[in-house]
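Entry
Fold in token form

___
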Amino acid sequence: MTDHPIVSREEWDAQRRQLLAEEKQFTKLRDTLSAKRRAMPWVRIEKSYVFDGPRGPVRLTHLFGRHKQLIIQHLMFAPEWESPCKSCSFWADSITSTLPHLANRDTGFAAVSRAPIAKLTSTAERLGWGFPWVSSEKSDFNYDFGVSFRREDFDAGPVTYNYRETPLRMTDLPGFSTFFKDADGTLYHTYSCYARGLDMLNPTYQFLDLTAMGRHEDGPHPMAWVRLHDEYEQA
């Protein structure tokens, strides 16, 4: 028998209306924050970033396709790893079906990782991912956007991640960045988010947050339960 509070439908409706008022306040605040995000100034991309793609070199501008905007997932997959970060993959699993909707809003999507392109291609095939995924193994891209760090970076003192110094000593960390392309082809960096800022981009978490059990992440760390989607034991 559950020890959770049980009430009549009338009392439940009354409490639900109270919560709805708070949810509406949160929605309005989120709309305000989104407007401030769009109003942020941009930074012109001065470097000519070149990645390794399945068919050869790919420039950052090519990842836009025919679109004015580009979203990039900084997907953790270091060159020496045999598989990508399970947490980053948890986010990536929802992307492929979103691509047509993003395209209709003049927005492209790509993932970027430091692992060699052969590893990325085989992993994408294994996991059924249909979004563009390129290797920055020979590029400064990950380092410039604050998601990868060299040994000398750690030797110089605390590195900066998510706009503040961190004691973390991981060579690769997660994030998302957005870009805009002008009519003349000039590229701009418009936004990046990291760490808990990625939470809003994970639909599974948003669904679980609606449930009575929530995320119930009671392992040694919150995401200890996450696996690549073909590695879960049958539930």
Q: What stands out?
A: The domain at 41-198 is CATH 3.40.30.10 (Glutaredoxin). The longest helix spans residues 9-39. The CA atoms of residues 53 and 204 lie 29 Å apart. The mean pLDDT is 96.
